[in-house]
Amino acid sequence: MPGGPGEDGAAGRGPAGAPPARGRAERRRSARKAARRRKRSLVREVPLIVLVALVVALVMKTFLVQVFVIPSGSMEQTILIGDRVLVDKLTPWFGSEPQRGDIVVFKDPGGWLERDRKPSEDGPVLGAAKQVLTFVGLLPSDNEQDLIKRVIGVGGDTVECCDAQGRLSVNGHPVEESYLAPDNPPSRQAFRIQVPQGRLWVMGDHRDVSADSRFHMGNPGQGTIPLSGVVGRAFVIAWPLDRFHQLGAPGSLSSLARMPQAGGTAAGSVGVGPVPAEPPLVMGVLGILPLVVRRSGRPPE
Length: 301
Prior knowledge:
Blueprint: H1 5-13, H2 24-63, E1 65-69, E2 84-88, E3 103-107, H3 124-135, E4 146-153, E5 158-161, E6 168-170, E7 173-175, E8 191-194, E9 199-203, E10 225-226, E11 230-239, E12 245-246, H4 251-254, E13 266-269, E14 282-283
Antiparallel strand pairs: 1-2, 1-14, 2-11, 3-4, 3-11, 4-9, 5-6, 5-8, 6-7, 8-13, 9-10, 11-12
């Protein structure tokens, strides 16, 4: 007796009603299609990921935190050559101003930095790629104009060195500078400056090799730097890990009362010797990574 429609369907589907097995060729075709879909998806996603990473790096560099690599010994022993420091660029946007004792990164106010620059040997393609990565802060720039120093005097302060005990004084109060490099006096040349409003008097902790405010008293601003040129405050050494620690302001400076005045003039400076060479900081969001940064033609001071 012929079977019904149901029986015919079951016979066509194989034992126990299971669907027919896929052939090897069909499985290969399916695998190739899946691989092509993954490749197309990757091609679409990679540019988007790169773009997002560049935007994040640019926002961090511009508004939040920037990493600088220290190229010189002008801030020893507080900050050593090769240290990576994190610089707070956010709080100045809310009106915060550097205070005495803060370590700040600032733009060259004019004539503070080495001017020896070698012409680039990069081709047009590589040069353009480097410019993009430099712009977002992922590569160091050949044209940085940044320095790092400690704030000693703010607007209205009178900074003088040295008293009978060889100490630096601010507004007539002697300052104990425990942060100075070993065997360095507060200054080997005498000076006295009344800091104009809106400007800062800055000095390196390694006074014997720091081309700081003392060596530029003949420049516009009498060796002081404008608040508008401050990039941010260095707040932590992030690398190497065994030197990871916060950079705070010493109480001998931060506890001094502020002396508001209308302006300032330099009363004098004597005994200024040759100006030490001052290389610029190396900048980059990725500078925190343990990379060896070598700047050809720029030996550390």
